[in-house]
Write a structure and sequence with these properties.
Blueprint lengths: L25 E5 L6 E5 L6 H18 L7 H24 L8 H6 L1 H17 L16 H9 L6 H4 L1
Bound molecules: zinc ion.
Zinc ion binds next to loops.
């Protein structure tokens, strides 16, 4: 007879699992260049929750420093909102860049050559760093010379993967 035990600890709860549910902050994805798995923050801008938190923080600041209602609380509220927005934007922007190959999709949309140079410098650093000697090598895109020539003739712009 088989012993069917259900282990409650192996199953993460709704509130503690950050991958699902109400507080899902990061999502799993793959790097567009080296195809290594990674997690990025989904939120690009502040939400209603940040608005409520900023209003509470400004109210507490007002009660602590001015001991009552003061119209200067509006300035503190705006500053709190700005700090929250900068923090959320920076967090998202830093999580978008691949830590393995240095590929930056936002920079690639603006300027593909700068993105290619950044990936090249990251790969050069990775090649020289002894910490990466025993790790699994990256799956970098390969392109045959005939295909590269055919794509160049189409004049769709310079290929980033050939310039790296
Ligand atoms: Zn990558």
């Amino acid at each position: 007879m088989k012993n069917h035990k259900f282990n409650f600890r192996s199953r993460p709860s709704f509130w503690h699992n950050r991958d699902m549910g109400l507080f899902k902050k990061r999502s799993n994805c793959y790097c567009a260049f080296c195809r290594s798995p990674r997690r990025i923050y989904r939120k690009k801008s502040i939400s209603f929750l940040n608005l409520v938190a900023s209003s509470f923080a400004s109210l507490i600041f007002m009660l602590v420093f001015w001991r009552g209602f003061d119209p200067r609380v509006c300035i503190v509220f705006v500053v709190c909102l700005a700090i929250a927005e900068v923090f959320v934007k920076l967090r998202w922007r830093l999580s978008v860049v691949c830590r393995q190959c240095g590929f930056d999709p936002v920079l690639y949309k603006k300027n593909p050559m700068d993105a290619a140079l950044k990936v090249r410098s990251q790969l050069d650093l990775r090649r020289q760093d002894p910490r990466y000697l025993l790790v699994k090598p990256l799956i970098l895109p390969t392109l045959s010379s005939e295909k590269a020539q055919a794509l160049k003739e189409k004049s769709k712009g310079q290929l980033v993967s050939r310039s790296i």
